[in-house]
Amino acid sequence: MQECYLDARNLLIDETQLDASIFPLEVLANLEEILDENWLPNWEAISNNSEQ
User: Fold this and answer.
1) For position 32, what pLDDT does the model report?
2) Which of 6, 17, 31, 33 has the lowest tally of Cβ within 10 angstroms?
3) Contacts (Cβ under 8 Å, ≥6 apart) of 16
4) 45 contacts 35 by C-beta, under 8 angstroms
5) DSSP codes joined into one string, the chain
6) For residue 25, which of 12, 44, 39, 42 has the smallest C-alpha distance?
7) Which Pfam families does the record cross-reference, listed alphabetically (predicted)?
8) Are 46 and 28 in contact (CB under 8 A)?
9) pLDDT of residue 50
10) CA-angle at 50, arms to 24 and 46, nearest 5°
11) How far is 27 from 41, CA to CA, in rounded Å?
């Protein structure tokens, strides 16, 4: 899953021309969490982590 995520991340960066640093280098969740329609990542923790 990590390889697919990195491929998608790179495509997104190329397509949007946004700074790569705003996109995490690792998948934010496991497959079970991603498929759970009631699950949302902790965006505040993610945002704080990417600023370091």
Assistant:
1) 94
2) 17
3) none
4) no
5) -HHHHHHHHHHHHHHH---GGGS-SS-SS-HHHHH-TT----HHHHHHHHT-
6) 12
7) DUF29
8) yes
9) 56
10) 75
11) 11
Buried b (16+ CB within 10 A) or exposed e, 29-48: eeeeeeeeeeeeeeeeeeee
By the 8 A CB rule, do 50 and 22 touch? Answer: yes
Q: List per-residue pLDDT tens for the chain, 52 residues long.
A: 899 999 999 999 999 999 999 999 999 889 999 899 888 877 676 666 655 5
In this prediction the pTM is: 0.64
Residues making up the chain, counted from first to last: 52
Place of tokens 């505040």: 44
